[in-house]
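Can't attach files on this board, so I'm pasting raw text. These are the components:
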Amino acid sequence: MPARRAENAVRNIAALAVAAFFLLPMVWLFTTAFKLPRDIFNLPPVWLGFEATLDNFGFAFGQTQVMRFVLNSIIITLGTTLASIVLGTLGGYAVARSRLRFISASSYFFLVLLMVPPVAMLLPFYLLMRDFGLLGSYLAVIILDTCYNAPFVVWMMSNYFRALPTEMEEASLVDGATYMESFLRVTLPVAVPGIIASVLYCIIFSWNDFIFALLLTSPATKTVPLVILGQLSTSQSAWGSLAALSVFAVLPVLLIALVLNRYFVQGLTAGATKG
Amino acid sequence: MAAPGQMRVVKKRRPDPRNVTHLVMLAPVLIFVLVIALAPLVFSFVISLTDYRLTDPTQARPFVGLGNYIKAFQDKTVVDTLLNTFLFVAGAVVSQVVLGLALAVLMSGETRFMRTLRSLIILPLSLPPLVVGLTWRALLNVQIGPIAFYLKQLGVDVGRGLLGETHTAMLAVLLIDLWQWTPLLMIIFLAGIKSLPGEIHEAAFVDGASRWQAFVQITLPLLMPVLFIGVLLRTMNAFKIFDVIFVTTGGGPGNATSVLNFHIYKVGLTFFDMGYAAALANILLFMIGVCCAFYILLLHRQQARAGGT
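---
Top answer:
Structure tokens for the assembled complex are below.
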């Protein structure tokens, strides 16, 4: 069928063009990180065949305390993710299974919270943290990050739990397990894909967070995005070291996203699709 | 051996252990969120009724009643900003949902080639929005940016650049947002498409429907639940845009890309006018609340239709 083949060819070419649109800006960022200053803004752009260098990384990491800021980002990401997953998974299960109207309706409350613009919460939270003397602590950032991530996990996990069959749970209850035991031993193990998806989103949100860290951290607790932005005010090699730090900041999440890419939709669409 | 359901009938006065367990599981997150989210929001309402300036050394907070709210609606910048916010949210949601759906259909093939492209295309969504903004800022820069360069080669007059011209700045911000978030919609819609039974289409073709008819009349209605999730997700996040605007346009040129979320930040932390910023934040909250109520109504009806759980 030549018509069929022609159609597939057109499809593949169109898909390739789409991929180019989404990938070329990242290619630019990644290549810039390895370019010499003279090549970075050479026009026409040098996409390939430039002289690769690690100078940008050298400069970026030669700055004082960069590793400290990386550590800050890791601490805040881990803290947020852990808190959000524990709180959100428990809450999500209750929302999905409860027969109490008030509990199942609370999912709407969490959804509403997700829509609260960060600034509306951030400015008063900033003032409160200042009064409590917590400004510049990891805790302040973790608390506010969790306040957005935990409701998201509740929402995702409740969708996920709802889509799971309940026969096994009921069987374990008949066998004398308490409701908590049945959740921990029967339901939780089969909900692992949903939890992985939630972890993925929590990591992405908190690792990439800029606005909360901008206001709530001190020079000692700064996170990586703030350091990236700070490169703009450094010397002539600004864009090179900016790109180098960006690549470094992006790489772990990018690798996780590549490996776990099939989990992105778990939970988000769990109730809305049959798959 | 009594089933749990029967136990409840016997011991009527004891609370149902099922409900107790669920309450215990919900309590931590509910209490956490109530304390952490509501405290600032209540505090924000209180300071919105005062003239609270961070720079005032006496830290007096004279009560001004609804003064800040009245000021907001007479403030041309705020009115522009409100319009920009709606423009951005509507533009982002519509363009990304349409494009995301088109891409999902285009790339739904199960060849190795398509699968590889799909897993690469979703990568932008894992980048920090800040880095995305900075990258595009460089790409679009008139003097040094590759995109501006290629446009010039094509004979396009780029002026001060897409981000620098008043009439294109918002489009440029929309483009950046589209670049980062369309892939997420694509994979969500793709999951929806994959879960559709294949026979439906075959039946439609037997009936002589064109592919477009089959898509609009059969596929699209079945995809409503995932489309709804996509719209919900993107609306939530579009109201929150900050990082990209912060590093690309700073709300400019003029106020062309100043959205409420960004403007509030500016009022609070560059002008230090906390009372006014809080009032603006509450106005934004109210607007989002209205959108929210609308969505929740839809969601509720949809879940009721799906047989309710």
